[in-house]
Amino acid sequence: MPVSATGRRISRVTKPKNTNPLLLRRNSSAHFNFTNHPRRKPSLPTSKSAPEGRDDGAFESRLTDAGRIASLATDQPVHDVAQLMRWIHDHMFADMPERGAGMNSTRIAEVLNYRRALPPIVTVAHVHALGNSPTTTERRIAELVRAGVVRKVLVPGRGAGGAAVGEGLALTEEWERRVREAAGLEDHVKEKYIRVMRANPTAATISGSHFTTSEAAALTAAGFLTSTSATISNNDLFSHPGAPSLGSLSSLSTASSSAASGSLGAVGGTNAFHDRGGGGGGLARQTSCTNTSGALARSEFTFSLPSMGPYLRLLLSARAHLLALLAKSSLKYREAPRELLRERWSGGVAGEDAVSRARGARGDFGATLPGRTKKWKAFYGLEFDWVLEECLGSGLVDVFETGSVGLGVRAT
């Protein structure tokens, strides 16, 4: 049978008979090694990264300074100091968003309670930032203080240099309303405190002789008085009646040196238990109370309002945040247009223009909800204009005309 009749086809491929296996080995040096080369997408252009501490929208050139603005009085409708104080306090916070706030009911209640608890304080620097003339404003403040319409509040030890808070102002009417609404004070203590305030309209401090020990303790616990001296202390309460206070090492070493060692007088005498705060009656207990009353008469208290600590922390942190935004906007000149700072303070939330209001009516609030921004998370909705006016009056920033992009803000 011929070969072509079978199902097997004839292969025409000829194989080499004497194949050297050494020639079939691959030469590794002939191939490229890409392990040490970084992977790069050719479609994306390479760009230099921004320096640390500055965002991509920072200004490289300096803004045109067409004239410094010393006061922002044109931005508010009132000019009298008393009305101006009310206007500043009423425009401290932004209104709670009705829709798309980004906060649940618990957070909204927390924000509203925080705002309500803050004292009605306005710094003197803030009033000067909105006043037409510093001399006229200072003269008017002095007149209102002497008339008992306004009271000054001393804020020592807060801030340093130009960042110091200094003095605050409060309307006497609002102050007395806070006293009457205080929950932990008895009525006769409230009335006595108000009488002392009215009898000393220009005094920022008061002697402790105006109040009893229990009254002073209650007013201090409520936040309406703060102690300016350490006259009343545990050393006074536990010192020997008639002896000097044990606040120094010399008085401590000589407290019982007059008695012989091993005698009853060396350990304080027969009334040692009462002198060290023990219970029961007796002459020693009455003498100790007399010593405490004398220490109260020698002490001084400062008129204050409750929640001054949270107010000062909010004020100082807001100032620092605004200066940080200026530093990020321009590392070299530390300046930026006011509207750009306003946008960054708000966290990129849509503004109050017609387009933004129309988008909000449709339920489109942009990529960032107000409750997610630092303005609402850390500052409880504090307004940008309020912080800017505070920094301007304190001398931390300068406001100037640019002629092209509106007002400019520069850190001093």
Automatic annotation (TrEMBL):
Pfam families documented for this protein: Stk19
Disordered: annotated segments: 1-58
InterPro entries: STK19-like
Comp. bias regions, Polar residues: 16-36
Recorded superkingdom: Eukaryota
Entry similarity comment: Belongs to the STK19 family.
Listed name of the protein: Serine-threonine protein kinase 19
UniProt source species: Cryomyces antarcticus
